[in-house]
Predict the 3D structure of the following.
Amino acid sequence: MKTRIFIGCMVLLWSFGVAAQECSGYFALQKGLKMELVSYDKKDKPAAILKYEVVDYKPVNGGIALSFSNQTYDGKGKLLAKGDVSGKCVNGEFYSDVRNIGSEMLPKSADIEVNVTGDQLIYPNNLKVGQKLKDAVVTVKSGMKGGMTLLNMTVTITDRTVQGFETVETPAGKFECAKITFNTLAKLMGKHSTKTTEYMAKGIGVVKSEQYDEKGKKVSSLVLTKLEKP
């Protein structure tokens, strides 16, 4: 019996090791990893502070499942919301539950609930210059807690393309990143188009992103300001 248990544990550890090797992509994959990102408005003033921590990391069929705790603060550090999000890596592709939507689109009040549903953003483990990534469509609904709906918006993300690889420096350090661009079309009392450039680092995820309007003017940005490894 002990031999069977030992062999079973060895098979599980081997399978987990293979999954970990296949899932060494552009996302936070270390339990206990803490990140702080600051969202800036078009005048480069802090609009929101986002804090994440990888609280669980476990093998699933064909890959790894992750759980993150997150807190959102306003630009002055007042807590607006907190909760949990999840992600998974299966067969070398990371599926993110964290939607890439410009912070200026979302309400900033502790009395407002925001619900985001739809497609997950997929990031393959190995990225190549010129590679096209899958599109996504999400719906954002918000309203007063226990009250009426204030916002119902559909966001379509298209033309996700790997433009190249660059070294990016932020207050959290220097990172070797994949540069990815994509277009966003938001339908809310008309159509609003933006173009986003994001920089992704292996083992971390987004370390920097910039969003521009149709005229090429920057409307928001997101920067990794703190990184704590376990």
Summary: The radius of gyration is 19 Å. Confidence is low (pLDDT under 50) at residues 1-21, 98-108.
